[in-house]
Amino acid sequence: MRAIRRFTVRTVLPEPLKALGELAMNLRWSWEPEYQDLFASIDPQTWQDVGHDPVRLLGAVSPERLAELAHDPGFLRRLREAAADLEEYLTGDRWYQSLPDAPRAIAYFSPEFGITAVLPQYSGGLGILAGDHLKTASDLGVPIIGVGLLYHQGYFRQSLSREGWQQERYPVLDPHNMPLTLLREPDGSPATVRVGLSGGIDLLARIWKAQVGRVPLLLLDSDVEENEPYAREVTDRLYGGNSDHRLEQEMLLGIGGVRALRVYCRLTGHPEPEVYHTNEGHAGFLGLERIRELVDDGLTFEEALEAVRAGTVFTTHTPVPAGIDRFGRDQIERYFGGENEVASVPLHKVLELGAETYPGGDPNVFNMAVMGLRLAQRSNGVSTLHGHVSREMFNGLWPGFDAAEVPITSITNGVHASTWVDREVLGLAGMRFGRLLRNGEGDWDLVDQIPDHEIWAVRQRLRAQLVEEVRQRLYASWKQRGASDAELGWVDGVLDPDVLTIGFARRVPSYKRLTLMLRDKDRLRRLLLDEERPIQIVIAGKAHPADDGGKRLIQEMVRFTDSEDVRHRIVFLPDYDMAMAQRLIPGVDVWLNNPLRPLEACGTSGMKAALNGVLNVSILDGWWDEWFDGGNGWAIPSADGVEDPDHRDNLEATALYDLIEHTVAPRFYDRNDRGLPVRWIEMVRHTLRSLGPKVLASRMLKDYVTQLYTPAAWSARAMTADGCAGARALAAWKARVRAAWHEVRIDHVESSGTGETAEIGHALSLRALVSLGQLSPDDVDVQVVYGHVDEHDNLTDTRTESLKAVGQDDGGRYRYEGTVDLDRTGSFGYTVRVLPHHPLLASQAELGLVTLPPIPTGMTDGSALR
Ligand SMILES: *Cc1c(COP(=O)(O)O)cnc(C)c1O
Hints:
Number of helices: 28
Protein name: glycogen phosphorylase
Bound molecules: pyridoxal-5'-phosphate
Shape: globular
Domain DUF3417: 13-119
Enzyme class: transferase
C-alpha cells in the first residue's frame, strides 16, 4: 500500500547536542569538511545511507546513540569547536566589510540553485553557478539575499533501461525534512505572498529559507492548501510543463520574489536590497514589480523605470538564440492584461519591454532576454568570448552602434574552491595550498615549491579512488538494468588505476556533442585498447526529459560502452549530479570538453578540473578561449567557419584523436627513472598556478561587486535620493532628448594639419558644425571616432575623443573643435558623431540614439592616410 501523506518526525536533540541542529540547518557544512567529519562520526553507516545529509542523519540516528554522544567528552569538545567556528564565520568582518559605500544589500534571483546534492534544486551549470555565487558571497561577507523557487520534485534522477534509454524518476521532496525553515509572521502563521495569474486566479506562496553560511536563500513554494489544485503545482518541477506553466513559475519567481524579499526584510530587519541581480532572463519580471511599487508611490512609469534600471544587473548565459526564454505575445496579454492588469503597469508597457524590435525580430514574441536588457542599466555575459558574442547577438537593440559599443560587458564565471577541490588536493603543501585556494589570495609561488612526487602521489590516489567509485556505481547501474550478479563479475576489473583517465560529464544539449568521440569508433577503440599507451574514459550526463534527441545520444554512448571488447575501458555512469561531479572531476587526469564553438557561454566544470590539477583538453570556447596559454592543457583545433556540421564534427573529432594519440598520451606515459611523468607534473603545476587565481569564484564575485554591484548601487542612490529627484529628472531629460533628436544634424566636418603626407606623430585638427535644434551642447557629446579602415571603409580598432563647443554661427549652429594624434601607422580614417549625454547614463549607447554625418562624409582631405 502507498501512503497518501508523509510526515517527518523531527528528533529532539539532547541539550548538550543542541548545536548540532544549527550546524545541520546552516548549509555551510556543505563546504566545510570538518563539519562533515563531525556528522559522519555520529554514525558512519547512517551517514552513508542518508547520502551525507545532516538533517536526515539527525532524523535517522537512534535516541540511544544521541544519548551516548551527549556524554562523550571528545565529541562534545569537537561540537563546541565547530559551533564556535560557525559563530565566528557568521559574525566576523570579511573582505566586503572593508569596502566603502558598497551596497547595503543585493538580491540575487535565479530559477535554480545548486548548493549541495541534498538540495536538488538545479539542473546544470546555471544553478551550480548560482550556488557557488551564494557560497562565495558568504565567504567574502557580501550581503546577498538569494531568491528562487522550491520545486517539490527535485531535478530528476537518471537511470538506464537495459537498452540504454534514459529513465527518469522524480524524487518527491519533503521540505520539512530538508535544511529549510518556513518564514513565519510574528503570530506564528506562515508568511505568504500573492501573485495574480491569468483569469483572475490568485497564486499564493509560502516562503522557505535555506541558510547558506551568512547568506539567506528564499524559496517560494506554491504547494499550500489555500491554492486551487492547479495552482499548487506551479512549483512542482524545474523546467517542467508547458509554456504557460513556465510563465507562471517565472511570474512567481520575479514578482513573488520581490514580495517575498519585502516580507523577509520586514520580519528580520534586514536592509532592503539596493541592487537586484537577475541570473538569466527567467526572473526578469522582478523589474515590473519594482516599477509597480514606485508608481504606486507616485512616480510615472518612465520615472520608475529609470530608478529600477539603475539598480538592476542582468546576466545573460546563452549565446544560442534558441536557448532564450520567449513567450507568445498572446500569453503575456492573457497574464498581464484583462482581469490581472494593474493600472500602474499597463499591458502595453509590459509588451514594449519584451518586444523584439529589431530586424529579424518576431512581432508575436515576448523575449525575456530583451526585457532583461531593457530593465537593467548594467548587463554582462559570462566570459570574454561570450561578451563578444552577446554584443553581436543583441546589436539590433542599439542600431547605429558597432557591436563593440553595445552595453553588455562580461565577467568570466568562477568556481567555489571549497566545494569543488578534493581534500587530497587541499592538503597539498601541508594544507598551505588549500588555504591559498580557500582564501583566494596569497602567494601562488607556493605551487612551484610542491615537489613532483607529492603532486603525483595525490593524482594517483585520486585516480584509484575514482576507479573504486566507478566500479560501485557501474555495478549498481547494471543491477538496476536487470543484470544478475553472475553476469557482473567483469565489473571488478573495470578501469585500471594506472591508465590515463579522461572524464567527460555535463548536460546533454546537442551543442555539447556528447558523442563527438564516437565519430570514428574504430579509432576510439584503438586508443582505448592501445598496448603501450591505453586511455580510459568516464562519461556521465543527463538529457532534458523532453529531449529525445539527447536521449538518443546517451543511448548511442551507452551501447558503445556496453560492448564487451571495450567495456573495461569506457563507462557511462547514470545520474550525474553534484555529488558525482565532486568525485569524478578530481579523479581523472584529463577533463574533456568539445562543444560547438562559440555555443558554450563559459563552462565551469573545466575550472573545477583545473583547481584539482586535472589538465583540460578542450575546444577554445567559453573560459578556455580566454585562459588557455599553450601550456596549461591542450586546445582541440576547431573548424570554425566550416558550414556543414557533419564535416565539421569529423574534422574536430579527428583533431581530438590526433591530439590524444600523439601528444596527451605520450606525455602521460613518459616517465623518469623514478616512475614520475615529470613533464606532465610540470603541466599540472602550471595549471594550478596559471589558472588557480583566475577560476576562483572569489575573483568572479569581487569583479561583480566592484564592476557592477557598486556602480549600480551608486546609480540607484543618485536616482532615488530626494524623493527620486534623479529618476524624475532623467526620465524628463530622456523624453525631451528623444523628442528633439530628429533635429540633430552634423552639417559640416573638415580636418587640416596632415595634407597628403600624414606621418606618425602629426596631429589632425578637426572642426565640425552641428545643429542641435531644441537641444543644447550640455545635452550631447560630439565625438570624433577614429581608427584603422578596412577594405569596405569600415573603421576598426576605434578610439573616440570628445570635441569642444567653441561657439555658434549666425544660423545658431554649434562649432566644435578638437585634435587627434596620429600615433598609429597604416590606413586611417575618422568620422564624427553626436550622442546624448547625461551624467546618470551608464553607457553612451544607452538611449540607442546617435547621429552620424551623411555619407559620403564631409572629410575635406578625404584620403585614407598611409
Ligand atoms: C559544474 C557542473 C555543471 C556545469 O558543467 P559545464 O561543463 O559547465 O556544463 C553541470 N552539472 C554539474 C553536476 C556540475 O557539477
